[in-house]
Amino acid sequence: MPMKFSRNSILAIFMIGTFAIGMTEYVVTGLLTQFATDLDVPVSTTGLLLSVYAISVAVFGPILRMVTVKYSPKPLLIGLISIFIISNIVAALAPNFEVLLLSRLLSATMHAPFFGLTMSLAVEISKPEKRTSAIAAVQGGLTIAVMLGVPFGSFVGGFFDWRLVFWIIALLGAITLIGLLLVTPNIRPAEQPKLRKELTVLKNKNVLMIIAVIVFGFSGVFTAYTFKEPMLREIAGFGVTGVTIGLFLFGLGAVIGNFISGRIHPSKLTERLIVTLAILGAVLFLFTFLLSVPFLAYVACFLFGAGTFGTTPILNSKIILAATEAPALSGTIAASVFNLANSIGATLGSLLLNSGFSFSQITFVAAGMILFGMLLMIITHKIEDKSLFSIATDK
Questions:
Q1: Where are the alpha helices (DSSP H) in the chain?
Q2: How does this protein sit in the membrane (predicted)?
Q3: pTM of the entire structure?
Q4: What is the pLDDT of residues 201-217, one digit of tens each?
Q5: What DSSP state is assigned to residue 184?
Q6: Could you read off the pLDDT of 109-152 as tens digits, one per residue?
Q7: Are 250 and 305 within 8 A, CB to CB?
């Protein structure tokens, strides 16, 4: 159907929305110390703000998407971003840690469906050869949030008040709402999605192998990432400014890694992913050693971000392109699985920290998990249906 606005305009609005959601999800990693002090809880407990959010995305996201699978994307996106705005207002007004945790759960319910809908619409309005880059563009909002939103939130929380951060995020949500109302095309699927048919994706070996890589391997990223801010403070000896720079460089690496990966031809995704996971595992193994030298600490943050978000669009693309039987559900599944991995990693990191593990030992565990994911990817390369990716740009 003809569109009133250009593809780039629509993708820009989607990116503002994913920027806001990404900032909500990850900004807490730069505010753990502030939460612990203001709400009188241990730093290890504040890690729940990330793990509860992630597990809620993984559990409630697919359920909400399945319930709404027959509805058009535009009204769903408007409803989802409205939930997002309300949840961040609740966070800004939270009188205690429990209410803040509740606001995270509310926000998490809309995360996966929003990402799934925007990624599927981005693919729908793009030429076949630009589908991978369209997915990377939507994901790009989140990575830019990691680059700018997280260090900015850490800076605002450190010098002013962490509550102000959530008011800013709510404002970004309102801007997204206006943009969705004005710009998003009301595209209706040619054939109404059937939930039973969509759920057959859970028998797709190509999708299941990528899910295994994310859950059992990529989750190692979040084992280390959750406590990146305390590590920068304790090992590198950084104050607010140093932590902000470190978070910014992580995000800069994330943005560069994301958009480089978005340029990869679908037929080369698996090979590139194996290499990226190997490099990321090595970076995590060396991470705490590098933190002891200020300059190398900044280099480590950059490489950590580039490796983490250089793999994300590749894994997203592999799920969405392979899940041909679930065009409406595939993007939501991808977002949910990543957040399941996030929850596993964050929870494991908290358990290890509470059990007396040092930050160095935690990063060793994280590196081992990433390298296990690489081994699963090598197996995937041998058994996957490569025709799904070799023809992805010729449909």
A1: 7-26, 32-39, 43-46, 48-67, 73-93, 97-124, 131-144, 150-159, 162-183, 195-198, 205-213, 219-225, 228-234, 240-261, 269-291, 294-322, 330-354, 359-383, 387-390
A2: Multi-pass membrane protein
A3: 0.76
A4: 778 888 888 889 998 88
A5: -
A6: 888 889 888 887 887 777 766 777 777 788 788 888 877 887 78
A7: yes
